Amino acid sequence: MAHVRRHPEAKGRWQVRYVDPSGRERAKNFARKVDAERFLVTVEADKLRGDWVDPRLARTTFGEWTDRWRGTIGHVKPYTRDGYESLLRVHVLPRFAEAPLVNIQLVDIQEWMSDLARSGLSVSRIRQAYFLMGQILGAAVASGYLAKSPCVGVKLPRMQVREMRFLTSEEVETLAASIREPYGVLVHTLAYGGLRWGEAVALRRGRCELLRSRLHVVEALSETSKGLVFGPTKTYQRRTVVIPGFLRNLLAEHLAAHGGVDPDALVFPSPAGAPMRRGNFHRRLWRPAVEAAGLEGLRVHDLRHTCAALLIAENAHPKAVQAHLGHSSIQVTMDRYGHLFPSDAEDLADRLDATRRRTVDDAGLTDDASEVADLFATVPSLA
Q1: Integer Cα distance of 174 and 172 in angstroms
Q2: What is the pLDDT of residues 42-80, one digit of tens each?
Q3: DSSP H helices in the chain
Q4: Boundaries of domain holding 335
Q5: Same domain, 349 and 327
Q6: What is the pLDDT of residues 325-342, one digit of tens each?
Q7: How far apart are CA 193 and CA 214, in angstroms?
Q8: Domain annotation covers residue 99
Q9: pTM greater than 0.85
Q10: Domain check: are 196 and 126 in the same one?
Q11: Residue 249 within any structural domain of the chain
Q12: Which of 146-150, 160-164, 273-277: highest mean pLDDT?
């Protein structure tokens, strides 16, 4: 039973004895009885709420806990792990490495984010650092090192949404004609196949089922601190992309002219025959082609947006767009491209207008609204 008593060995001191949720008996000493009683009340309240944590675990520093947390993320992709390590090294550990977990408060997180903003760090990078911090502290909560995460309730800086850029089919042709051969086929594959960059440069001959106009997307190429790595796609899902006939023919011609017949050979290697690095491609091939086509500022990823826009322009169902692009859910598709789908709002408004007219006609009433409509022709400011 929890209680406060005089310390059996230290004269003038008080001792709190209690049992933690695991059944282990614990003791803590105080110089004043009032402090001991206050601590006992707090402990019992925390136990009732389920907020009690082992004080010794809570004193673990953030740096020590992060070292242990690193051992739990072996499943993440190398590229993602590299991103985590960069954020930790540059932005997180310099601030919190020596801080005991229990001492990190919400205000500390908020002040840290404000300091990052004042340093000129981008909003995107600040949010990435925050989400990583939240992931690490959330794991500490789940492991019994903290009662709750101090990241909960932090106000994040707002992301400035970058306007998507979509090419017309004519602009795609101009770009494909402007890039050095044989990479015009890659432009068409990105714009009409909707593959991500890493998926396109990881595509192998044996996964091009051209007689059935299908590409099997099963892996992606990513760049890490240890070099280029082939791994799963962004969503860890395999998908089959049905491509238009013209692209099937272009790919067939491309494969017949380049790279032999090895099914493991890359469809789009670098000019030297190695896996393609994004930076080299952008500097040597993409940027000159974009400038020649008059499309300054165009990103490789904009071809994926273009694919979505072309599909939607052809009245593709949202689920078909999701499957073609390999989104993890229909919500992702609608969040990114929902504004491109045709709206039923005007049709609904016309139906409501017709409903009201029928009601007025049936009741033999005068339709004042139809008379007001003449104002649009006589008062330009209303148009």
Answers
A1: 5
A2: 777 777 777 767 778 888 999 999 999 999 998 888 889
A3: 33-49, 55-58, 62-70, 78-87, 93-96, 106-118, 123-142, 169-178, 184-193, 197-200, 245-257, 278-281, 287-292, 302-313, 318-325, 330-337, 345-363, 368-372, 375-378
A4: 169-340
A5: no
A6: 999 999 999 988 988 888
A7: 10
A8: yes
A9: no
A10: no
A11: yes
A12: 273-277
